[in-house]
């Protein structure tokens, strides 16, 4: 299976400078290719310490220059926050500079205050996502970017540099709500699974998506990619202790950032699904929901982590996984030890498991 690394610029307690945070996380990223990781994935967030990563493609372009073989993925570019023509141009530049190593992760955003910071109507996000994604993916098929959508009208212009190769078979959407399933399937995208639901629900969602994709397109979708927050230690007791500190802090930061307990989200067009989160939290309590999110993550000894990740990837019939190994304010010492042990005793074993599971190959030019 494929094994990647997610770079997460998280500073939830704001206990270090952004300069120190960047030096730490970039240093870990630059070590990843020599350690054997096969891809980088970088998320997009704005206006706070949850993830200090406002320009995913800029960071990936930097890492493209520092690496030779590792794939470069966005997890995700939040399309409604951007001018889609500029996104397409930046993607094409990155694809050329990296010799086709680009993987395009897309999403429509969930942080209410991020939409407010950009002065955008959150209720338009689903339609903007659909129009922008369709126009960008079509542009990489045709070399022309254009749109006659209700919210985005773009007269036809050439995409330059000319697309190196189509993006459609190397595009992944973050976990989709039931209401967005058809939109993403029609785009021809695979899905990126981040554990935030009971596993039986996640598996059912992935199965429904697969079946709907085949029904709409007549061929198999790209296999899903799992993103997991991972803690590994030689001592099971030490792993448990780190889990209780860092997975719980991560889960609490996610709970707060996305306002999962806010029933008002369900009243925003396109976000009706999240009303179920608020209802469950009201019923069971915020602390129990945070604990639930934390316990969905992976931790233990190398043997235990290999077993858990293999099980999770197989449950979703995935192509592989990408590990977040530094998060929730981990010190450089703890994060480095976590990454190095994962690379030494987990990563090589995962690569030998289900080796037929592989990402789409590196893009080759559509025209000589």
From TrEMBL:
One of its GO terms (molecular function) is oxidoreductase activity, acting on paired donors, with incorporation or reduction of molecular oxygen. Residues 1-311 form the Luciferase-like domain. Gene3D superfamilies: Luciferase-like domain. Pfam families: Bac_luciferase (PF00296). GO terms for cellular component: cytosol. Keywords: Monooxygenase, Oxidoreductase. Coiled coil: none annotated. This is Alkane 1-monooxygenase.
């Amino acid at each position: 299976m494929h094994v990647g690394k997610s770079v997460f610029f998280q500073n939830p307690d704001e206990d270090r400078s952004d300069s120190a945070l960047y030096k730490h996380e970039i240093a870990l990223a630059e070590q990843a290719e020599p350690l054997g990781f096969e891809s980088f994935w970088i998320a997009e967030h704005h206006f706070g310490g949850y993830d200090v990563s406002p320009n995913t493609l800029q960071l990936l372009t930097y890492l493209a220059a520092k690496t030779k073989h590792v794939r470069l993925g966005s997890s995700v570019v939040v399309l409604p926050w951007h001018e889609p023509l500029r996104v397409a141009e930046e993607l094409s530049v990155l694809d050329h500079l990296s010799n086709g190593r680009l993987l395009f992760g897309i999403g429509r955003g969930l942080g209410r205050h991020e939409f407010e910071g950009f002065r955008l109507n959150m209720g338009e996000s689903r339609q903007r996502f659909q129009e922008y994604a369709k126009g960008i993916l079509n542009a990489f098929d045709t070399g022309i970017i254009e749109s006659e959508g209700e919210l985005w009208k773009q007269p036809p212009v050439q995409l330059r540099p000319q697309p190196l190769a189509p993006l459609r078979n190397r595009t992944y959407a973050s976990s989709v709500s039931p209401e967005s399933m058809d939109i993403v399937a029609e785009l021809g995208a695979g899905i990126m699974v981040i554990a935030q639901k009971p596993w039986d629900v996640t598996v059912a969602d992935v199965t429904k998506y697969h079946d709907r994709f085949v029904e709409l397109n007549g061929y198999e979708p790209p296999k899903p990619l799992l993103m997991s927050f991972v803690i590994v230690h030689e001592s099971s007791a030490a792993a448990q202790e780190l889990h209780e500190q860092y997975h719980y802090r991560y889960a609490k930061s996610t709970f707060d950032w996305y306002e999962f307990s806010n029933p008002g989200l369900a009243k925003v067009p396109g976000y009706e699904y999240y009303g179920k989160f608020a209802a469950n939290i009201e019923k069971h309590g915020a602390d129990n929901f945070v604990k639930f999110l934390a316990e969905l993550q992976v931790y233990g000894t190398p043997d235990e982590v290999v077993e858990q990740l293999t099980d999770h990837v197989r449950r979703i019939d995935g192509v592989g996984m990408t590990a977040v190994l530094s998060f929730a304010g981990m010190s450089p010492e703890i994060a480095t030890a976590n990454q190095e042990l994962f690379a030494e005793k987990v990563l090589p074993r995962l690569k030998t498991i289900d080796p037929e599971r592989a990402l789409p190959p590196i893009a080759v030019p559509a025209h000589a």
